[in-house]
Amino acid sequence: LFDRADAGILHGEFLAAFHQLVEALPAQQRIIFKMRFEEELGSQQIADILDIAPKTVRNQLGKALSTLRKSLLMINTLLIAYYFR
User: Fold this and answer.
1) d(Cα 73, Cα 66) in Å, to the nearest integer?
2) Torsional sign, CA 17, 67, 65, 28
3) Domain containing 26: what range?
4) Using a CB cutoff of 8 Å and minimum separation of 24, what contacts does 51-60 make?
């Protein structure tokens, strides 16, 4: 159903949407998410830098991931509905 060009466009649109979702996270969740996945820091390192408890880092990261999962599920559902109508 898709050719390579369509797949490339879809991938680019998905990445742009994901970036917007990350930017829409509450500030602390966004900062922690980026430190963990863009800077590849561990929970203890993030906690030390932000002067918060490691448990807070884990809790905020869990909330961010949950929000992103829900949003991505909705995006995937819409994409499937659009392309297979």
Assistant:
1) 11
2) positive
3) 4-83
4) 57/32, 60/28, 60/29, 60/32
The total number of structural domains in the chain stands at 1
CATH assignment at residue 71: 1.10.10.10
Model confidence, pTM: 0.79
Q: How many Cα neighbours within 13 Å face the side chain of 50?
A: 25
Q: Give the span between the Cα atoms of 69 and 63, in whole angstroms.
A: 10
Low-confidence ranges of the chain (pLDDT < 50): none
pLDDT of residue 75: 76
